[in-house]
Amino acid sequence: MSQFYRWNRTIARVRSLGMALSLCAALFGCGGNGTGSSAPPPPPPAPQVLTQADVTAVVQAAAVAAQSDTMVIAVVDRMGNILAVYKQTSASATAPGNFGNMVPTDDLAVALARTGAFFSNDQAPLSSRTVRYISGVHFPPGVANAPNAALYGIENTNRGCTLAASLATTVPPATTIAGTSPGLAIVTGKADTMDSQPFAVNPGGAPIFKNGIVVGGVGVAGVSYDVAEYVAFTAMNVGTDGIALPALPAPGEVVIDGIAIRIREGRKIRQDQCPNALLAGHLDAAATGHR
Question: How many other β-carbons are positioned within 10 Å of the β-carbon of residue 51?
Fold first, then answer.
């Protein structure tokens, strides 16, 4: 009698296990929602690009942002292709670049725009100020015995040299406006190769976002650094066609290695530096369309 009872209990357990396995198989086969198929993934976001009207709006916003006739304003796309170079009538031929070297002002504006375009992503807008902050001999800057920053030496890269022929079409080299190499590379405004002035910076490069997607960069040269930064950020926030700095995800700041990174200085320019109308200047048609 006891043997028969144990046999029935064994059969019952086997049947229960079989039903459980069948139910699990049905749930996994249907994605767990009983509909017979899983929900399709959301479509990718629509691609965003800078149109001719966008570029014009950015350049005009920059040109009227400050009282100056010496500015050079450059706009590039995400890959660094030059879309516009606007030069005011009294712009100087050269300006201080990395390590205190005097370089063509037009090329400096382009390199600043590329700095903003190359390093930013849809989650983190990085300006030339930001890149300078994370490329010093110490991180954080000015802290003795701290290690090198993550991008230390970045000023010596991306100078238009072809490192791999197979990548030349996918990632075109960032040459000068004239198409020659080496280009000016990433611009941070570092004073010298020893980084003896850890807070020296050229903040005139900013990314351009369109509907929350990074699509290029704007660079401003030929004026004081505080004015250049103000103009660049005014231009990238022009507000037309979705062009504006997007809201940052929590905590609302770019944080690197636990340190909140500033993408711009909060200073305002004086009222007498603000123009009442668009000042004279011209677009450099020969520059557009080059790397």
Answer: 13
Q: How many residues does the chain have?
A: 291
How far is the C-alpha of 7 from the C-alpha of 190, rounded, in Å? 84
In degrees to the nearest 10, what's the CA dihedral of 7, 8, 14, 19? 170
Q: Is the pLDDT assigned to residue 271 strictly greater than 90?
A: no
pTM, rounded to two decimals: 0.78
pLDDT tens profile 178-222: 988 888 889 999 999 899 999 999 999 999 999 999 999 999 999
Backbone angles phi, psi at 8, to 5 degrees: -65, -40
**Residue in this structure with the two tokens 């990433």, named with its chain if needed:** 186
Distance CA 185, CA 6 (A): 82
What CATH fold (topology level) applies to the domain 52-283? Beta-Lactamase (3.30.450)
Task: For residue 127, give the nearest of 238, 202, 192 by alpha carbon.
Answer: 202
Residue type, 42: P
Alpha helices (H) along the chain: 2-29, 52-63, 105-119, 128-133, 225-236
What are the residue boundaries of the structural domains of the chain, listed by start?
A: 1-38, 52-283
pLDDT for residue 172:
76
